[in-house]
Amino acid sequence: DAVVFGKECTYEKIHELRDQYEGKGIDMVFGMGGGKAMDTAKGVAWELGVPVFTFPTVPSNCAAMAALSVVYRQDGVFDSFYFYERPAVHCFMNTEVLLHAPEKYFRAGMGDTIAKYFECWFSARGDWLDYHSALGREISRLCYERICTCGRKAFEEVRTGEAGDAFVQTVLTIVVNTGLVSHMVEDCYNCAVAHSVCYGLNLIPGLEEKFLHGDLVAYGVLVQLMLDQDRAQAKEVKSLLRDLGIPTTLAEMGLSPDREKLDPVIQETVTGPDMEHIPYPVTGEMIWKAMEETEIL
C-alpha cells in the first residue's frame, strides 16, 4: 500500500498507521519523501517490528540515515525525539531526484548539516568520549568543512540543473555524514543550543511555513556561537549562510527583536531537551543577549 502520511510526524499518526497494518503480514516499510515522511515511516516500522528502507526526495536533512524521529504535536510544535536501536537498512538516493527538488530544501539541508559540527563539539566539550563518540565527533568536522568547500558551487549546480561533483559531495555530506555522526555519538552530543533555538522559533505561528528546519537551525548556530563568545567564527559562518541564502538575523525572518514578544521562544530554548548536556548553565537572559548580538554581527 502507498500511504500519504499527512503534514506532521506525530505519535498519533505513527500509532494510527501501526494499528492499520498490524497483523497484516507487513514485511517492510519504505519511507519516501522529506524528513517528516521518513520519520513517520521509521516510527511505524519500529512499532511493527519490521525493517525500514528510506528514499529521500529532498536533500534537506539526515532523516534518511538517522536512527531517530523528530516527533511534533499536531499543531507543529516540537514534542520529543523517538530513538531507535538501528537506522534504516538502506538509504536509496537518486541524484537527479534530489537535484530537481525545490531549491529551498537544499539550502536548508546545508544549514542543518553545518549545525552538526558546532553542536557536537559544543555539547561534548570537557567530556571524555568513548571510541564511537570520539570518531563521530571527528566526522562532524566534515559536516562544516565540506559545506564550506563545496556548498557554494553545489548551489550553482542546482540552479543550472546539472549535478556535478560539488552537488554530489554536498548531498552525501547532508545525508550520510550527518547521519553517521548521529549514529556514532551518544544522543546527548547530537544537538545543543542551535536546535533548541529552532524549536523555540517554531512557536511563532507561520514561521515554519516561511523557513525550513535547517534555516532556523543555522540561525541557531549563530546564536550559539555568540553565546559562546566566538565572534570570529560567527562572522565566518554568517558569511557562508548569506552566500547560501539562509537568514542570519531575526529581521531577515521578518521578526522584531523584541524581548517581550520573544520571551516564549527564549523560554522554550533554555528548557528544551537539547540543552540538558551543554558545558555551562544557560539562562534566558544569556540567550537574549546572544540574539541581540547576532542582529548586529
Provide a descriptive summary of the structure in words.
Keywords: Metal-binding, NAD, Oxidoreductase. Its EC number is 1.1.1.6. It is an enzyme of class 1 (oxidoreductase). It holds the Pfam family Fe-ADH. The protein is mostly helical and 297 residues long. It has two domains: 11-92, Rossmann fold; 96-295, Dehydroquinate synthase-like - alpha domain (Dehydroquinate synthase-like, alpha domain). It contains twelve helices and five strands. The strands form two sheets. Strands 1-2-5 form a three-stranded parallel β-sheet, covered by helices on one side. Helix 2 links the parallel strand 1 and strand 2. The longest helix has 30 residues, at 131-160. The N and C termini lie far apart (51 Å). The mean pLDDT is 93.
Question: Low-confidence segments, ≥5 residues, pLDDT <50?
Answer: none
User: What is the CATH topology descriptor of the largest domain?
Assistant: Dehydroquinate synthase-like, alpha domain
CATH architecture of the largest domain: Up-down Bundle
Task: Provide the spatial order of strands within the biggest beta sheet.
Answer: 1-2-5
Mean pLDDT: 93
Rg = 18 Å
Overall tally of structural domains? 2
Distance between the termini: 51 Å
Topology order in helix (H) and strand (E) letters: HEHEEEEHHHHHHHHHH
What count of helical segments does DSSP give?
12
Structural class, from helix and strand content? mainly alpha
Largest sheet: 3 strands, parallel
Gross morphology is: globular
Indicate the CATH class of the largest domain: Mainly Alpha
CATH superfamily of the largest domain: Dehydroquinate synthase-like - alpha domain
β-strand percent reads 5-15%
How many distinct beta strands? 5
Protein name: Glycerol dehydrogenase
Domain Alcohol dehydrogenase iron-type/glycerol dehydrogenase GldA: 6-76
Catalytic activity: glycerol + NAD(+) = dihydroxyacetone + NADH + H(+)
Pfam family, one: Fe-ADH
